[in-house]
Amino acid sequence: xxxxxxxxxxxxxxxxxxxxxxxxxxxxxxxxxxxxxxxxxxxxxxxxxxxxxxxxxxxxxxxxxxxxxxxxxxxxxxxxxxxxxxxxxxxxxxxxxxxxxxxxxxxxxxxxxxxxxxxxxxxxxxxxxxxxxxxxxxxxxxxxxxxxxxxxxxxxxxxxxxxxxxxxxxxxxxxxxxxxxxxxxxxxxxxxxxxxxxxxxxxxxxxxxxxxxxxxxxxxxxxxxxxxxxxxxxxxxxxxxxxxxxxxxxxxxxxxxxxxxxxxxxxxxxxxxxxxxxxxxxxxxxxxxxxxxxxxxxxxxxxxxxxxx
Amino acid sequence: xxxxxxxxxxxxxxxxxxxxxxxxxxxxxxxxxxxxxxxxxxxxxxxxxxxxxxxxxxxxxxxxxxxxxxxxxxxxxxxxxxxxxxxxxxxxxxxxxxxxxxxxxxxxxxxxxxxxxxxxxxxxxxxxxxxxxxxxxxxxxxxxxxxxxxxxxxxxxxxxxxxxxxxxxxxxxxxxxxxxxxxxxxxxxxxxxxxxxxxxxxxxxxxxxxxxxxxxxxxxxxxxxxxxxxxxxxxxxxxxxxxxxxxxxxxxxxxxxxxxxxxxxxxxxxxxxxxxxxxxxxxxxxxxxxxxxxxxxxxxxxxxxxxxx
Lengths: 309, 309
Prior knowledge:
- Chain A is of the alpha/beta class.
- Helices cover 42% and strands 18% of the residues of chain A.
- The longest helix of chain A has 25 residues, at 220-244.
């Protein structure tokens, strides 16, 4: 988890981060959040009492009105009222979004989607999350669930998704899916440098850095799997352009941060091939995140500031 | 084409309709539009000079700012400036949307989506079109192209779509696709009453009335094909709920009008099975259009009134 103290212009005045201790349950994790906010304020040279508002991005489904995390599978949280808890501790209003909603909010306020009236964020990590800006504002949806684009189905007969259904975009192209496909290729007898890289670097999971190294080593298995993932993400992006006609699609998450334009270029091609309305001038931009790791925290700070303005 | 003169409350004061003579080209069709508007005014007992504004829904891609039909395949129109032509003739402002954008606008102003902050329309006809209401307003997108949900890809290996790509929702479940699948089943040797119904009723195309009669006659081919189409439309609706989290999805078009809730119920089931965020209380409604044939004309009139308000 990462906390920043930011100015109205998105300047980071202080920050702090730490590994989330999910084993400690909601109480423990909320304690960690309080600690990180306090440390970020200290880093900014101010007392936490001086904070004007707090924004939070949670890895899962939220109810923004209640300040409740409805369900966060990776934390194993169900119906946790984190907003009121933080609000009580710090004595300021707390805004809550999901982690990708706040990331695209950050990119819209300060990054790659700045100035766009309509933008879509596609964040590729353990899963695939999304966020939508319409008419200059984060679109949260009826229940606060807008932007779950990782669960747009690209093929009902596709691979199983962690959500229990088949063929969601996430099941094709998340980092978890890339790992599954690389491991399956190796198991089927194809040669790959990936196991060696993971061993050398003492990695249990196929992190973005492992993916980057395998590609740099011209590993054909990784190249094939990444090409398929890029194709699927492009298909998803094309679907979103046909549905929403945004000015810009921002791609983010660990792999995008590591690989940048090399990762994005084939996605752009795949997406453009699905545009119903031709875009000969390339007026619809498909670009990597500008804020990287800080997108979520900066977007959460923007939402918080906006709520008390 | 249909013209209505409507009150602020969506009451139809006068109307007129006729078959579009596409062979006469843009000039001829614009002449027909002028005639129908004039006849609808006459039917309302007023002079066309008394109209306050004109709204138009065009069957294709539009540029609302220019009042231009960018591309309407069924009319074979490219870059036709219909808005300025009508505006010059009648001396009032003209608002332009595509036919399904105005239909969902009509349902939102006066029909099945009334009062909803967020709604999506799925219109099933020759093709599949859509329209999106966000924060109480028709969402047109960056280029006026928002809502082309018929071209969300449900399976890249799926059937060919009139747009030239594969596996769009339209390629699975439009009336044209239903006709294609029924004919293919018959050609492969399955027995069906459809050819007989079409012959008796002197129909060259598999209209909604033919579909309705075949289902009433318990025709297994038609039942199978419709079930597949319903499943695909449900998949599309589920994708849209995951992306946009609307309060209501309105289904419209000829088949929906004919079959109503019988057609919608299996779509609802299929859609709900794809919701990432569970909706145990059924707070997200999936319902047939209330305005039927008049949805588009009423929505266009609403847009027109809104533009001059």
